[in-house]
Amino acid sequence: MSKLPSELPPEIVRISWLLGLWEGVGQGQYPNSSNFSFIQQLEFNNDGRPFIDYESKSWELNADGTAGKPLHSEKGFWKPGEGASVEVSISHVTGISEIWTGLNEVLTIEEAKITSARARIATQWVGRVPSAKPVDAGDRLYGLMNGELMWTYDMAAVGQEMQNHLWARLKPLSETQIIETKKTGKPVNKHVVPSIPGVK
User: Under CATH, which number does the domain 5-184 receive?
Assistant: First the structure.
């Protein structure tokens, strides 16, 4: 985050730990589908209004750690609700749109900076175009820990019960790296699939 809390709209300070452009790698799995690894960028921005713009892009992870062909992309908005609540809207390139609600928890603050936090959101409404796959519900957990942004996505779709579909572990990009990725439209780093925290 390049802005100080005092420079942000007061409404979003408690979710300001999301701000920035993050890049990393994760894995996906679901019944009747092949497991896959991917490179992902998550970008959270604020333009002075009381919400955060959100965008996610992902690419295939090549064997040499570089990005392959583009995979999924989605855009949306994060808006604080009353108390610790948060409201999120997301639209997917696949023709699915969702309304999410949940809770944001700030766990640690050091020198006026949020250093540990998490937000868990669940779908309240899912809409889709006729050609989109039947997604019924989702549950996401985002967490900031040791300077990294980690997230996991559980999904109920195509007749399956709620279960894990995606997870990723990302690091913030520097200003130089942000300029580079904006210019090329591609990830700036080579990656290997990381281990899940707490799992050997």
Answer: 2.40.128.20
